[in-house]
Amino acid sequence: MIGVAAWVGVRGWLASRELQAAAPQASVAQKAIAAGDVASASTAAHGLAKHAASAASLTGDPVWRATEVLPWVGGNLRAVRVLSSSLDEAAGSAIVPLVDLGSSLGVSSFRPQNGAIDLKPLIAARPTADRAQAAMTRASHAVNAIDPTALAGPIADARSKLASALGTASGITDGLDTTLKVLPTMLGSDGPRNYLVLFQNNAELRAAGGIPGEVALLHAENGAISLGTQASTGDFPHHLDAPVMALPDETRALYGDRPAEYVQDVTMTPDFPLTAQLATAMWTQRFGGTIDGVVAVDPVALSYLLTATGPVAVPGAQPLTAENAVQTLLVTSYTWGDDQAAQDAYFNSAARSAFTAILGGGSKPDALLKGLVRSSQENRISLWSANAAEQKILGKTTLSGLSAVQKAAGPQAYGVYLNDSTGGKMGAYLTTAVDVGAKTTRGDGRSDVSIRVTMTNTAPADAAATLPFLVTAGGHYGVPAGDIATNVVVYAPPGAFEGGVEKDGTLVDYQSGTDGAHRVQTLQVSLSPGTSASYTFRFVSAKPRQNAPVVVHTPVMNSIEVGRL
Fold first, then answer.
1. What's the pLDDT at 107?
2. pTM
3. CB under 8 Å to 220, separation ≥6 — which residues?
4. Can you say whether residue 223 is alpha, beta or left, with left for phi > 0 and alpha for psi between -120 and 50 degrees?
5. Please, what sign has the CA dihedral across residues 16, 20, 25, 27?
6. What is the mean pLDDT of the chain?
7. Beta-bridge partners for 116
8. Which end of the chain, N or C, is surrounded by fewer C-beta atoms within 10 Å?
9. Rounded mean pLDDT of 556-560?
10. 292-306 as b/e, with b when 16 or more CB fall inside 10 Å?
11. Amino acid 390: pLDDT
């Protein structure tokens, strides 16, 4: 017993030294990757793998494993072994291969050159990324499976830190693996593809972001990308004689047939795959052809991408920049008059100019990638593929729209989605704040959840007279000029119960419905210039002790601040 104790003690001490030596290498590798220093990242990654492999070897022998059956100490020894072997697998089978891959597949590999992306290195990298993602997932699952309640303090702390690090790394490797699986085929590696691009206009809010003010056809073939037919909302029928496709009953109950009758309303639902199918049906009914997928993007995302290109010249107008794109496209352009045709022509020209600049090859690859990542994180880019295999992959990512984002945010995620009913472009004058909180006072342990939505109309008092008709809609849709009317739609997580809607502590009427497993509360908020209103949507949590609710919301022009109650 003394010999065994000495054996385990010495090897445990040596393993601890190896793990302590590995930690700085992991930090160096992380910083080097962020800085694009592939050589330093590779050196640090190999150093990390060497120390992790040594720690795994020291804690994986038969004597060590035999002591894992002992009371109290055995659980801690097993945890040390699993932590060491998991770090070894993550470092040796994921981090090192991916860092080494970076020497041949850098950020610049994703940068278009003269309208095309070279797909060969992306295709060649698929097997490495797939194996790395599988290894990282195994390592993450193994660490998460360790019960921390019976561990000694330092070991429990080590488990927590490694679980967090592996969780972050697993998300990165999964994103890279997904990208390499779908990007080459979606860019036409196995045949030409046609995509619809919905340029959402946040000045007229819809749940997914805004109305599709501009719709364009994108052609991709063997990595070469070109912009084809462009259309505005005016190029589609003002109102279809019949819905372009049958909507799910629950969708019709919440939104009516409008998403299937007006191209401006296909984004009323947070369900982007449904939005994409509606847009596809409307396009093919109007223009014909075959659509292989749909992309949605908004001017805020465009501004992020323009940090990579610099100023973009637009014929007959001032250049678009990262600093002025949002204000110009969503506010200033509407001050040029009430000529809708001229407005559409400007948006058409601006979209084509920006597209040409981004794909022309002159953009900075690091800035372009950062712009894409930020746009994705803020849910300003959505993607759907008509290919079932590709969509199965995309559907598991947050690129699949707000419904997917809310699902990924966990069982305590609530969705706050905004649909404008003013009929104009008053979104620039709407500010929204959301506060969320939960209290557990019920006998069954469930939490009372509150989602408070506060909205303010910041338009000038004389907005009815000073703002253009295209902005106010002039009362054409039953909302007084200068006022802002918004349908606030709140989706509860599956299993949660409704608790009503209150204003100033008094219950108010609202529309109740369902969308799949979600309870949905809808309320119209109308604001005259300079006024605010605050409504609290109440729910009862699906399970006991769910007291950490989070909020997913419509991406707007003016960012929504989410606070705690």
1. 62
2. 0.87
3. 186, 187, 188, 192, 193, 194, 195
4. left
5. positive
6. 89
7. 113, 224
8. N
9. 90
10. bbbbbbbbbbbbbbb
11. 93
